[in-house]
C-alpha cells in the first residue's frame, strides 16, 4: 500500500460523535503498551501520527484517521489494561468498545494485537469474544517479535495460540524495529477493505 497522506480526523466516545460512516474502516485493538501506536506509525510511514500511551489524553478515546485523502480510515481504539487509568474510565471502556464493534457498519476488520512476550489475559480474551459475537473480521498480529530469539518465538506463539484458541498460523508476525511483517499486514488490510 502506498501512503500519500495520513491525517487525524477526530476523537470520539460514542456513535453520536463518530465521523459519518462514509469510508471503509480498519481498527486497531490491544492492551496498553502492546505496541499499537508503533504498529500504526510503521504502517503509515509516520514517526508520530499516533501518540504512544506514555502520553495520556487521546488514549482513552476512539481516534479516527483519514488515509490517502478519503480512501479509507484507520481507528486507534483505546488500549486496555492500563493500571493508572481511573476506575470510571475503566468501566466506560467495555460499553464504548462493544458499541463501536456492534454498530459501526463501515468497520471492515480489527487488527487484534498481542505482545510476543506476554500470555494473553482476560481483557484480550474478552476482546476476541466481542469480535466473534459481532462477527467482525479479525486480523491477529503478534508484535515485538524482535525481542525474542527464534526458538523462544515459536514457543510463545504456541502458548498464545493455546490461550486464545486461535490456530498459530493465523497470526501475522510483526516488529516495529525491523518492520518485518509490514507488507503482510497491509495485504490483509487491503483484502479486508475489498471484501
Ligand atoms: P501502545 O501503548 O500499544 O501504543 O504501545 P507503543 O507503540 O507506545 O509501544 C510501547 C513500547 O514498546 C514503546 O517503548 C515502543 O518503543 C516499544 N515497542 C513497540 N513495538 C515494538 C517492537 O516491535 N519492537 C520493540 N523492540 N519494541 C517495540
CATH fold title: Rossmann fold
Largest sheet: 7 strands, mixed
Biggest sheet: strand arrangement: 1-3-4-2-5-6-7
Fraction of residues in helix: 25-40%
Tell me the CATH superfamily.
P-loop containing nucleotide triphosphate hydrolases
Description:
The chain is of the alpha/beta class and 195 residues long. Helix content is 33%, strand content 21%. The protein is built from 5 helices and 7 strands. It has helices spanning 36-43, 87-103, 122-133, 150-164, 182-194, and strands at 6-12, 25-29, 62-67, 72-76, 107-115, 138-143, 172-173. A 7-stranded mixed sheet has the order 1-3-4-2-5-6-7, sandwiched between helices. The site of guanosine-5'-diphosphate has 18 residues, from helix 1. Keywords: Cell cycle, Cell division, GTP-binding, Magnesium, Metal-binding, Nucleotide-binding, Septation. Belongs to the TRAFAC class TrmE-Era-EngA-EngB-Septin-like GTPase superfamily. EngB GTPase family. Necessary for normal cell division and for the maintenance of normal septation. One of its GO terms (biological process) is division septum assembly.
Notable characteristics:
195 residues; alpha/beta; Rossmann fold; 21% strand; globular; binds guanosine-5'-diphosphate; nucleotide-binding
Q: SSE layout and pairings?
A:
Layout: E1 6-12, E2 25-29, H1 36-43, E3 62-67, E4 72-76, H2 87-103, E5 107-115, H3 122-133, E6 138-143, H4 150-164, E7 172-173, H5 182-194
Parallel strand pairs: 2-4, 2-5, 5-6, 6-7
Antiparallel strand pairs: 1-3, 3-4
GO molecular function, one term: GTP binding
Family: Belongs to the TRAFAC class TrmE-Era-EngA-EngB-Septin-like GTPase superfamily. EngB GTPase family.
Function: Necessary for normal cell division and for the maintenance of normal septation.
Amino acid at each position: 500500500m502506498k501512503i500519500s497522506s495520513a491525517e487525524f480526523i477526530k476523537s470520539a466516545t460514542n456513535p453520536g460523535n463518530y465521523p459519518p460512516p462514509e469510508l471503509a474502516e480498519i481498527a486497531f485493538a490491544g492492551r496498553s503498551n502492546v505496541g499499537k501506536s508503533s504498529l500504526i506509525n510503521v504502517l503509515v510511514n509516520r514517526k508520530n501520527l499516533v501518540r504512544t500511551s506514555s502520553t495520556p489524553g487521546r488514549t482513552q478515546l476512539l481516534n479516527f484517521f483519514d488515509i490517502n485523502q478519503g480512501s479509507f480510515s484507520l481507528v486507534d481504539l483505546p488500549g486496555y489494561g492500563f493500571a493508572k487509568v481511573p476506575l470510571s474510565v475503566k468501566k466506560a471502556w467495555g460499553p464504548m468498545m462493544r458499541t463501536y464493534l456492534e454498530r459501526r457498519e463501515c468497520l471492515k476488520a480489527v487488527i487484534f494485537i498481542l505482545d510476543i512476550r506476554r500470555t494473553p489475559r482476560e481483557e484480550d480474551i474478552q476482546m476476541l469474544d466481542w469480535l466473534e459475537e459481532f462477527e467482525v473480521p479479525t486480523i491477529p498480529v503478534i508484535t515485538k517479535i524482535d525481542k525474542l530469539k527464534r526458538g523462544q518465538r515459536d514457543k510463545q506463539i504456541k502458548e498464545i495460540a493455546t490461550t486464545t484458541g486461535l490456530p498459530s498460523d493465523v497470526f501475522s508476525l510483526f516488529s516495529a524495529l525491523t518492520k518485518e511483517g509490514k507488507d503482510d499486514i497491509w495485504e490483509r488490510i487491503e483484502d479486508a477493505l475489498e471484501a
